[in-house]
Amino acid sequence: MRDETSTALLVLQGIKKNYGAVRALQGVDFDLRAGEVHALLGENGAGKSTLINIITGARSPDAGTLTLAGRPLGALSPALARSLGIACVHQQPALFAELTVAENIGLRLEAGGAWRRVDWRRRAAQAAELLQRVGAEFSADRTVRELSMPEQQLVEIACVLGAGSRIVIMDEPTASLTRREQEKLYEIVRSLRAVGTGVVYISHRLEEIRVLADRVTVLRDGVSVGTSAVGEVTEPELIKLMVGREVSLTQRAAGATPGAVRLAVKNLSCIAGGVRDVTFEIRAGEIFGLAGLVGAGRTELARTLFGLTPADAGRLQVDGRDIAIRSPGEAIAAGLAYVPEDRRRHGVILEMPIAQNMTLAVHSRLFPGGWLRAGPELSVAAKFIGDLSIKVAGPDAPGASLSGGNQQKVALARWLATKPRVLILDEPTQGVDVGAKGEIHRIIRRLAADGLAVLLISSDLPEVLALSDRLGVMRGGTLTASLPGDSDPHTVMAAALGQPS
Amino acid sequence: MSTTDHQSGWKNILLRYETLLLAVLVVEWLFFYHYGTTTNRRGVFVGFGTLDRQFDILRHSCEIGLLALALTPVILTAGIDLSVGSLLGLCAILFGKLWRDGGLTIPVAAALTLVAGALGGGLNAGLITVLRLPPLIVTLGTYSLFRGLAEAITHGAVTYTDFPASFLFLGQERWLGLPTQAWLFLPVAAAVWLLVHGTATGRSLRAIGFSPEGARYAGLPVERRVALVYVLSGFIAAVAALIYTARLGQAKADAGTGYELFAITAVVLGGTSIFGGRGSVTGTLLGVAAIAVLKSGLATLPVVIRLNAAEEMSGMLTGALLLLALTGSILPKILSTLRARRQAG
Question: Does the predicted interface ipTM exceed a cut of 0.85?
């Protein structure tokens, strides 16, 4: 295969890497050609991050070879990798929050040296040019702290563009982007490809791989299980490769007959939270999906309902009874439960054992008189570890030791333990691998079937459409459309964008 | 009393930081027992090894011990209370004034002093939870405020003395074999232990220490819990003030100066993380004991007596002990990192 090696920009062969007893990579073969977008797929824990770290020189492999443009690479360091033209856009932007965009870009791109003088005008011009190329609509003088997560990601991408890298790795770049920003990103990726850059593209979204990538490699349990051209493989086949079994993703549940109205929200507003005049109701056994762009006010609505930013106008009824919610404690007492969007900061307390995480919201019921009791706590933990099939060393394992999907299940378990009447789920499968996503979907359906009223917030449109019985679309802090669950995705997207469909 | 905050198994117990600290304490004690105990010319056993000296250590560690107990829940929430030493001083003065100038009986004056301590802690609590000011700044402020008030009340000159013998009994005598104040210290220690390790409240303090936002999202009453630890801290500082006054037989505006730092040292030496979440009351008690034994033991070493350097030595060695213990506590982490690096390299 002379032909292939001559165009191969980067070739990895038989890469192995262990962390102590954990065998992260057990023989990965991967090659990247100049001018291609090569998608890397795999469940969380399949070894994608380790592979990125090896390509960027952050970790050295235990075995295997790296070849860059036909030249074998010895020990790679991050600095060496950078000088060879390898750049990475990380999932979490690693920028200096207190510095301006231009300063951040300058720090990445300009040569170092303690006494080097800064040419401010050139730096500003360069930053402005790069921002324009990535389609950013903010000024280079803005402080990074003021930028939203997607905007920060654009700055990261601007840095990569400015570095003129030969190899660009993108780790779930669209996870927090809106549809329009995604389109812009696709354009950037395509323009990189056009100038002969090799792009390693990591994503959980299969539909995006289909439109963007040329080839796709699937990693499972630290082994590369297959590489093929995107056109030659179907989505079910890819999913099967990733999880080693078939998972149904977009299958709609048979419409169950919903019960009485559980949650009724009338003209709810919270000025500080940016929620304006929201009215809807959810029946028992019903999943009410909430679609909309990032920043449309969906999380803000959830925070208002849960008392984190209490409402200043409107009415709230649970099971026909008027209630006022001024704090999360009152929300819990009223039968509401909220699994938040940011599971690492809000959903679980990473340092705490998972048993303690699960019982955090049911102290008063589990510990009468306030005295801790190990028995009831462990039985709650055992019940949910079993019910939700959480993969964990034991109830004493700290939350941080779990994978994203299992952390999400712990967050869910905490709220199911409260035996809620209304469950608010905010991006329940964000950053969760395909296998766990399917499981979480099944759990949500089962909960609704058991009579829970579910408010499902998700930016994953296929997910909202697959799960919801009815759905609402939010824009600018208010509910702009109410649609049936079997709506067409284009209709929903048009409503979210505020365009007539 | 069962609790899941403790890991079981002999291996876990052996690897616990408290076990390490206990070993240090035992070695330290045996060292002073060996080098600090002598027989004088009349053939009487003197120095560190005497029972009197042990009771003396206990007596002297009660006040700092109480402040360290007060600080443990505070530090568990990732807070700090620098005002406890000053509040001790203010409470001692208030007690003296209420009794002598106010003409109140000792029990009434003592009860009012305890209320004043809780109110002082309440001031910290209010500033921290209502105005959301950082605990370090708030208590740095009240640290000066409380001491300043104590000095203003006494014009920096008045000393309250001549307390009745029945009150001095609390600080200077023994009851049922132990120094009397130990009978006040032990129930406070037990109560704080139960609060931290045995109650849902203690559990929520840890959650708040690890992640205040995470605790809020879990529906825990974060502000109320945080307020509680500062009020409790003030209350315990007032208890310490009564014991202090009874031990010295006088109340002066400078009572308890610098005690807050000794207490914080004991808590941190006891393994409680200054970043919140992790820590134990047992550790705090061992930390207090390690510092008290060191301080008292040094004064019995012949070489230290000859150099007349007990104060200086105890300061230096307390600092060294703290740094050593902290290094020791992260040693397993360092070793495992090195091992991982060797395997990788």
Answer: yes
Facing A346 at nearest CB: one of B210, B213, B343: B213
Q: Quote the crossing angle between the two packed helices B135-154 and B106-129, to the nearest 10°.
A: 150
3 state DSSP class of B182: helix
The two structure tokens encoding residue B319: 């600092």
Cα angle A366, A370, A372 (rounded to 5 degrees) comes to 65
Nearest to A396 among B7, B204, B211 (CB): B7
Residue-wise pLDDT for A191-219, tens only, equals 889 989 999 998 877 778 888 999 999 98
* Domain of A369, in residue numbers: 342-419
- Chain A closest CA to B206's CA: distance in Å? 9
Residues A128 and A239 grouped into a single domain: yes
Can you tell me which residue has the tokens 């700092």?
B64
Chain A touched by B343 (CB under 8 Å): yes
> The domain spanning residue B292 has which CATH number?
1.10.3470
Nearest CA distance, B199 vs chain A (angstrom) = 4
Residues of chain A positioned with their CB less than 8 A from the CB of B340: 19-20
Is A62 an 8 Å CB contact of chain B? yes
Q: Domain count of chain A?
A: 3
Query: Does a structural domain hold residue A444?
Result: no
CA torsion sign for A392, A396, A401, A404 is positive
Closest chain B CA to residue A397: B7
Check CB contact of A77 with chain B, cutoff 8 Å. no
- The answer to whether the Cβ–Cβ distance between A328 and B214 falls below 8 Å is no
In chain B, the number of structural domains is 1
Strand A8-19 versus strand A22-33 pairing type = antiparallel
Subunit contact A349:B211, Cβ cutoff 8 A:
yes
Distance CA A403, CA A44 (A): 7
Q: Which residue of A372, A410, A419 to mutate against B (max B Cβ within 10 Å)?
A: A372
DSSP label at residue A271: T
Per DSSP bridges, beta strands A86-89 and A167-171 are parallel
Last residue of a domain, one of A243, A266, A296: A243
Minimal CA separation from B279 to chain A, in Å: 13
Contact of A219 with A46, CB cutoff 8 Å: yes
Q: Measured between CB atoms, does B213 come within 8 Å of chain A?
A: yes
Asked if residue A378 and residue A309 are part of one domain, the reply reads no
Apex B290 CA angle, B284 and B296, nearest 5 = 135
Across the interface, do B343 and A18 touch by the CB < 8 Å criterion?
A: yes
Q: What are the tokens at B344?
A: 């990788």
How is residue B174 written in tokens? 């023994």
Of A77-91, A445-459, B324-338, the one with minimum mean pLDDT is B324-338
pLDDT at B1 over 50: no
Instruction: Give me the residues of B, 217-246, that contact A with CB < 8 A.
Output: 217-221
User: Is residue B25 in a domain?
Assistant: no
Phi, psi of A422 (to 5 degrees): -125, 125
**Structure-block tokens of residue A178:** 């809106």
For A161-195, the pLDDT digits (tens) are 888 889 999 988 776 677 777 888 898 899 889 98
Q: Which of residues 287-326 of A touch B (CB under 8 A)?
A: 308
Integer Rg of chain B from CA: 21
